[in-house]
Write a structure and sequence with these properties.
Blueprint: E1 5-10, H1 13-19, H2 23-29, E2 34-39, H3 41-45, E3 49-53, H4 54-57, H5 62-67, H6 69-86, E4 90-94, H7 97-109, E5 113-117, H8 129-136, E6 139-142, H9 147-153, E7 159-161, H10 165-176, H11 183-188, E8 190-195, H12 200-215, E9 221-227, E10 245-248, H13 252-258, E11 261-265, H14 269-275, E12 280-284, H15 288-297, H16 306-311, E13 318-320, H17 326-338, H18 340-350, H19 353-356, H20 364-383
Length: 384
């Protein structure tokens, strides 16, 4: 008896969030397909049979990954056994690179159509992974504008540019909110938003410097800060007296609509700043060990902030490691506050951000459904 099934692997919370950008619509369009694999509560709520929960599957840091290697081998064996038992012909593998790329190779050898969602950042870390993608993946989905061409140039035949998750998350907000702010308004009473990061070490390293930098600016300045629930609240406490507006992380769109300028730790939030058209100074300061690893293992020498990576140019000034100083940060802020052309130039560039992350014209769900319909039809013909 024909059983239309699809293996789906989201081994981390971020992977589940990626899945939710297409999975509900895909399930609605192919109601007779059984989805099974690895995911979290939200995927289960949409009908996915989770053989493993992502909280047990995910790991953080080199030592934790090493300790879980036997678990991953057992899990891969079980998942492949289920693929053979269910005669599964399609798999959607989401991020989780080390596990999913090994799984992709084994699935391809079993005749499974592999859809790999969110290409690994091979252009930064491991360029040789493009060859593995060419060999083991039928369709590769990318979420950064330049990645499609990068993988196509390296022999990956079927590359599809999917909208970035923030496109789905913020599209309506960006369109509906008041983001136009005149230079005269900024100059008269500057509102600066502080986004010091979502990890303790980021806030500890950057928040004091951000406050010092702002105090070097002359004129009327109003401060706001977004605090993360993942960070010890004690790290914020000494600086809250300087901030007249304190935003919860869930109110980020409100904070960005309020802000004229921002100071941010490097991360996804820089793309949010770009979407909401807020000129931002981006800073990154990590340990000497991490700096050594990045310097010696990273083949990529382009911009580090996601906003600049998307724009493929330095739209937001970046300060890394020793260049992160209150003086350097304040000089950029002063320039934006006092030079109308400098401020307007950045604002004009940022208006392009939403379209840059919108992806190809054909929807992700439409493309996936075509692949699945073809695979299921072929399996049905083999049944006759």
């Amino acid at each position: 008896m024909l059983n239309n099934s699809c293996l789906i692997i989201a081994g981390e919370k971020s992977g589940e969030e990626h899945a939710l950008s297409f999975l509900p619509s895909l399930i609605e369009q192919i109601p007779d397909c059984d989805f099974f694999g690895v995911g979290g509560d939200e995927m289960k709520n949409h009908g996915v049979e989770c053989l493993y929960h992502l909280r047990d599957f995910s790991s953080w840091g080199f030592s934790e990954v090493i300790g879980k290697i036997p678990f991953y081998f057992r899990a891969m064996t079980k998942l492949l056994g289920e693929v053979e038992k269910r005669r599964t012909k399609v798999a959607i593998l989401i991020d989780f690179q080390d596990f999913n790329m090994r799984l992709a190779k084994k699935l391809k050898s079993r005749g499974v159509e592999v859809l790999y969602y969110v290409a690994p950042q091979a252009w930064a870390w491991k360029p040789w992974r493009a060859k593995a993608m060419q060999r083991d993946v039928n369709t590769l989905f990318t979420i950064l504008p330049f990645e499609k061409k990068w993988f196509l140039d390296r022999g990956v035949k079927h590359v599809y540019s999917a909208p970035h998750p923030l496109f789905f998350h913020y599209k309506e907000e960006v369109i509906s909110r008041k983001l136009e702010k005149s230079f005269d308004e900024v100059k008269e009473n500057t509102r600066i938003l502080i986004l010091p990061g979502s990890r303790n070490f980021e806030v500890k390293n950057l928040l004091p410097l951000f406050i010092k930098a702002i105090k070097l600016i002359h004129g009327e300045v109003e401060l706001g800060i977004v605090h993360s629930p993942n960070v010890s609240q004690e790290l914020y406490r000494p600086f809250l007296k300087d901030c007249s507006n304190i935003f919860d992380h869930s109110k980020l769109p409100d904070a960005l609509e309020w802000a004229h300028l921002a100071l941010a730790a490097s991360g996804t939030v820089t793309l949010s700043c770009a979407l909401f058209q807020v000129p931002t100074v981006v800073c990154y300061k990590t340990s000497l060990l991490n700096e050594f690893i990045f310097s010696n293992c990273l083949s990529y020498d382009g911009p580090i902030s996601l906003a600049n990576i998307v724009h493929e140019e330095i739209v937001f000034p970046e300060f890394l490691q020793n260049s992160v100083s209150d003086f350097n940060i304040s000089e950029v802020l002063k320039k934006w506050i006092t030079e109308e052309n400098s401020f307007n130039l950045v604002k004009e560039k940022l208006k392009e951000t939403l379209s840059l992350i919108s992806g190809d014209q054909e929807g992700v769900v439409s493309h996936m459904r075509k692949v699945m319909d073809k695979a299921f039809t072929k399996e049905g013909e083999n049944e006759l």
